[in-house]
Amino acid sequence: AHKFYSSPHLEYNKGGAHFTICNFKGLILSLSECIKQLLTSYNNLKTEKDQLLTSYNNLTTEREQLLTSYNNLKTEKDQLLTSYNNLTTEREQLLTSYNNKVKERDQLQTRFEDMTKNRDNLQRKLQGNYFWYQVSSEKKSWEESRRDCLKKGSDLMIINSREEQFKKSLWIGLTDSETDGRWKWVDGTRMTTSYWNSGEPNGGRTENCGQIKVYDSQNSWNDETCSNKHFWICEKRISP
Ligand SMILES: [Ca+2]
Ligand SMILES: [Ca+2]
Ligand SMILES: [Ca+2]
């Protein structure tokens, strides 16, 4: 009986005669057939090996490319990180700078507001103090006196303070011609503070124009008949 082995080929010895058979993938073949099959198998394996080698080389190349690509990406990443850090630093500097500028702006704004307030105060003071006065050298009625002042771009003096008192008998810009007893200044404002001499005003419907009369007294005013002739005083506000 034949004895089978799993090896590709085997020798079978029977009564001194020497046969060589082989078991190729479970088939019992003659030696020449076996060699043919082995050769084919060898060639196939060789081809496969070559393909695997090619595949291996390709993979090696690919791996190297990937490695290069990876290294490039890593470098790029590092550069981006550096760039990001620089930008972060720059952003912080800009933020600090911005905050400083905001503070500076607020301080300037405060200063500007203070200075504006100061300027307005000064302007008010200057406007309150800068007046041009002219005392006439002749005598005229209240109406004619006023016309003279208006011609010069001024008007009869309105007395706003105690300081506007003159040591001379003069027409001032005060009248109650419209309604007796309702004294008004020539700019249309109602008289609120007054410096009437004692007993004045006393003229009723006949004395409707104001004058400084008793000039040695703080309370110097008198109501006077408008058509009487007196010296007068013009006043003009000068814008600084
Ligand atoms: Ca005045
Ligand atoms: Ca009157
Ligand atoms: Ca009077």
TrEMBL record:
InterPro entries: C-type_lectin-like (IPR001304), C-type_lectin-like/link_sf (IPR016186), C-type_lectin/snaclec_domain (IPR050111), C-type_lectin_CS (IPR018378), CD209-like_CTLD (IPR033989), CTDL_fold (IPR016187)
Annotated coiled-coil segments of the chain: 35-125
Domain C-type lectin: from-to ranges: 133-235
Record keywords: Coiled coil, Disulfide bond, Lectin
Domain of life: Eukaryota
Any Pfam family the entry gives: Lectin_C
CDD domains, per the entry: CLECT_DC-SIGN_like
GO-annotated molecular function: carbohydrate binding
Protein name: C-type lectin domain-containing protein
Species assigned in the record: Maylandia zebra
Lineage start: Eukaryota, Metazoa, Chordata, Craniata, Vertebrata
